[in-house]
Amino acid sequence: MHVDTGHNFPETIQFRDAIINKLGVKLIVGSVQESIDDGRVAEEKGKNATRNALQITTLLDAIESNKIDCAIGGGRRDEEKARAKERFFSHRDDFGQWDPKNQRPELWNIFNGRHFEGEHFRAFPISNWTEMDVWNYIKRENIAIPSLYFAHEREVVWRQDTWIPNSEFLVLEDHEEVVTKKIRFRTLGDITITGGDESEADTLEKIATEVAGMRNTERGNRSDDKRSESAMEDRKRQGYF
Amino acid sequence: MLDNNQLLRFTTAGSVDDGKSTLIGRLLYDSKSIFEDQLEAITNTSKKRGHEGVDLALFTDGLRDEREQGITIDVAYRYFTTPKRKFIIADTPGHIQYTRNMVTGASTANVAIILIDARHGVIEQTKRHAFIASLLQIPHIIVCVNKMDLVDFSEKAYNNIVAQFEEIASKMLVKDIRFIPISALLGDNVVNKSKNMDWYQDAPMLHVLETMHISSDTNKVDARFPVQTVLRPQSNEFRDYRGYAGRIASGVFRTGDEVTIMPSGFTSKIKSIDTLDESLKEAFVPMSISMTLEDDIDIGRGDMIVRSNNKPEASQDIEVMLCWLNNTAAKPRAKYTIKHTSNSQKAIIKEVIYKIDVNSLNRNNEDKELLMNDISKVRIRTTKPLMVDSYRENRITGSIILVDDTTNETVAAGMIV
Ligand SMILES: Nc1nc2c(ncn2[C@@H]2O[C@H](COP(=O)(O)OP(=O)(O)O)[C@@H](O)[C@H]2O)c(=O)[nH]1
Fold it and tell me: Does residue B163 share a domain with residue B267?
């Protein structure tokens, strides 16, 4: 399942479709645009408006209508402080909400995935991995990844201490200037909120070396996390992935 | 990558204000495991709250409730890597009502770090922490006597506390205990050797963690393979393939080995051991594999494949050290679902043999009520046999959880005696 904000990197969509083709599986798309058109959510207004928070409704609607028992994701505990408390099998109530104070204890390797109808689980198999582990694994197992993770030339704008990619959704302010830089992305989200780093790392080896020397957290360039100290926790409680 | 020898998991235990958060913050800070943006955020918060300098405890304060109340309320996980090792910290709160969190954090730990405030010495909570560490059979315990700066770095004060702890530990089963005098606040003997305690000759804490030998912590002897699922691919290439897939709980399996399927008791030989990319001659704990056998036998999830000359006990009556984890007390004679490896059965708690007062460590034979945080020895009866080893010998085939069918919550965790 892909929750599509409509504000995508074209490369992400290409990669998604190639994977689906290769595996021969069915893709479910939950569309934020449709949620807006149906009046389920309203577009944010103002200068820093994004569709990040709107995804929650789309995600939960798609989970409900497809009767999904368990949504498996790549969230890791080292990414963000609210994620540090996640269980491997993380329970979501009827409203898709997370109750961090009332989680099921998880001991040894025994997991409890039982739920009532209407409830679901989020499962995070690589909870205990770090960013470095991920890169080492991709390298060792030779796993295909979107080109966006490799350093490449791109039109970008300096905003909120990071390089935001130029796109049809970006509204430039007077003092802002589009420049071309060699950058790469450490995490990928909606194109309007994902900042890149200047980098020369255009191979897996170079990325691994770069990551090993990083002095900032992986999601540090995600403006969605920076809205407040508890931005991630607040969204997760509501059902954000 | 997540190689067992390179990866060390430890849990921290201490009462509120013993300095756990400060210690972890100090460890991360001095080992340069803190990212610049995290440091900046925490420096800002420290300033806002009027602290002079950086409040290292803020690194581990995860959720908003905690930040507001200033206490740690659930297990949080931290990661850091040094050139020698990768570490996973299960940071568990020391608050009285949270025995369950420590049990949870301890269930996967190689090492327990127990903090003691040098001014207060061994207190009731320390006993509880040591007891839980021994109950969960954490192989190594490091006792950190913290806040040595507040007792003038006195060797005598430290030795007193070591003696107090050894006294209580002598009544428990602990394989390896070490002691380190530290000041989490000032950094003495955490990452760097203390300049204030010449009398302490041994290595600082990080060095101990980096060099600790933990490869013996898994059971490599008793071959146990709990079946999770049967693989019967629908493709032409694998028309006749029937593989039993799962994760090896302990020991080693080789092709040609004589195996017994439990509980049915049928025997066969291992024909092949397969992974996604290749077939293997031998596989061992903790690999995930698919196994095929020479004979066609009815095998399903919950069955266990073992070597015929080394079998676990198959039993419907098991004795368990049980930690109650739920707000709702155990209901006498009520049915629960018991989960053990890949096996789920119905079960009742037939008898509470005794309860343990976690503060005095005395047994109580009168009180039979199981409340949240209670630890007791119980007898459980299951509808079908479980293939069990004692927890002391095998952490994986020796552990169970109980699930309440009316709420689906995990209500208890147990270690098979
Ligand atoms: N003097 C001194 N104070 C310490 C030391 N370690 C922690 N503290 C202080 O003790 C208080 C409680 O520490 P904290 O880490 O929050 O304890 P926790 O509740 O166990 O996580 C804080 O005010 C710390 O600054 C130490 O080694 N020496």
Answer: no
Is the model more confident about B4 or about B188? B188
Give chain A positions within 8 Å (CB) of B79.
77-78, 128, 130
CA dihedral (B63, B65, B66, B69) in degrees, to 10, reads 160
Reply yes or no on whether the pLDDT at B89 is more than 80: yes
Location of structure tokens 């095929």: B292
* Residue with tokens 């409040």, as numbered in its chain: B55
SS3 state of residue A6: coil
Domain assignment present for residue B340? The answer is yes
Residues B83 and B180 in one domain: yes
Q: Which amino acid is at B278?
A: E
Q: Which residue has the tokens 């003696």?
A: B163
pLDDT tens across B230-273, in order?
999 888 888 889 999 999 999 999 999 999 999 999 999 999 99
Domain that holds residue B251: 224-307
CATH number where B303 lies: 2.40.30.10
Lowest-confidence segment of A134-143, B27-36, B137-146 by average pLDDT:
B27-36
In a shared domain, residues B77 and B151: yes
Q: Which residue has the tokens 């015929």?
A: B308
Say what the alpha-carbon torsion angle A224, A229, A231, A233 is, to the nearest 10 degrees.
Answer: 140
Peptide bond into B286 cis (omega under 30): yes
Answer yes or no: do B232 and B378 share one domain. no
Give the separation between CA B94 and CA A161, rounded to whole angstroms. 39
Alpha-carbon span B189 to B201, nearest angstrom: 11
Q: How far is B164 from chain A (nearest CA, A)?
A: 31
Could you tell me if residue B75 is inside a domain?
yes
Question: Residues 6 or more apart from B169 whose CB is under 8 A from it?
Answer: B130, B134, B141, B177
End residue of a domain, out of B275, B307, B339: B307
Angstrom distance (rounded) from CA B123 to CA A162: 50
Centroid of ligand 1 to alpha carbon of A230 (angstroms): 24
∠ CA B301-B302-B305, rounded to 5°: 95
Q: What is the reported pLDDT for B359?
A: 75
d(CA B183, ligand 1 centre) in Å: 9
Query: Whole-angstrom Cα distance, residue B195 to residue B170?
Result: 32
User: A57-99 pLDDT, tens per residue?
Assistant: 888 889 989 999 999 998 888 777 777 778 899 998 888 788 8
Q: Are B362 and B379 in contact (CB under 8 A)?
A: no
Same domain, B209 and B230: no
The mean pLDDT of A134-162, rounded to a whole number, is 89
Quick one: B54 and B35 in the same domain? Answer: yes
Taking only the tens place, the pLDDT of each residue in B233-245 is 888 888 889 999 9
B64 with A214: Cβ contact below 8 A? no
Q: Are residues B110 and B207 in the same domain?
A: yes
* Interface pTM, i.e. ipTM: 0.83
User: A128 to chain B: which residues are within 8 Å by CB?
Assistant: 2, 77, 79, 88
- Assess if residue B1 is contained within a domain: no
Mean pLDDT over each residue of chain A, to the nearest integer: 84
More confident residue, B204 or B35: B204
- pTM value is 0.84
A33 vs chain B: nearest CA distance in angstroms? 32
